[in-house]
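Reviewers of the previous submission asked for a worked example of the structure-prediction workflow described in the proposal, so we include one complete record here. The input consisted solely of the amino acid sequence. No template or homolog information was supplied to the procedure at any stage.
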Amino acid sequence: MHRIVSKKQLSEEVFRITVEAPFIAEARKPGQFVIVQRNSDYAERIPLTIADADPSRGTITLIFQTVGKSTHKLAELEEGDYIQNILGPLGRPTHIEKFGRVVCVGGGIGAAPMYPIAQGMKQAGNYLIVILGARTKELIIMEEEMRALADELIVVTDDGSYGRKALVTEPLKELCQASPRPDCVVAIGPPIMMKFCAETTRPFGIKTIVSLNTIMIDGTGMCGGCRVTVGGETKFVCVDGPEFDGHLVDFNNMMLRLSAYKEIEQKAHEECHLEMQLKEMKSTKGKGNP
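From that input alone, the workflow returned the following structure tokens.
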């Protein structure tokens, strides 16, 4: 059992929780993730990248977005509640070294798993440039933490409500065209974003790492649900990744597999929102409001 020691809502559908998990906090490295199971043997197992860890307190920080029923149920937990099972750390750690100039591109919720990687790259002596992007200002997360860490921070939004009105690939291309060029790019976010980040850096021959978040069940390579094609070979994200050479990933195939349960997720998402609205109405009515 793992106690939630703090919880914060970062946006309408994004939550940050800090959880007691001393062995994981001590062992984890940038890029690794955990499998979370809320409170039942029959509950869905959710893969979440470790956004931060504090070995002295024995805690790890997880940031997640409510997409389907399981993540909505996870978001209902409050400080003092318990998560039954957390398995990890899983996956291969990020390869950290002094590359020179490193650009970390975080799209939406991807800024969370990017944070420990950016920390590692900076501690290794790299000149660190961070690009944060989201659809709107409300969806930008981890800005304060990244600003304190980066040598340069670029914020973009699709609608121009905050920072620069652009997609993350626009400033990334400008950096690739500049002198000196980046020596390494790390991109984490929606698959379509990572795909186009890799296509942006490809003509310049810049090493590009992406972190994949595929459909995952056991997290040990046994089920095969997380398989992707990388360089023409089948890989399993949970044990061979989650990070791969972005220029070798077959993003089209991966996105096709990710869409398999899209309608089911959307239906569950809508049902959970309806349940929340009904609870709020009952709560309001119980307080004597008409």
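Residues 101-211 form a domain with the Rossmann fold fold (CATH 3.40.50.80). We consider this example representative of the routine output the project will generate in years two and three.
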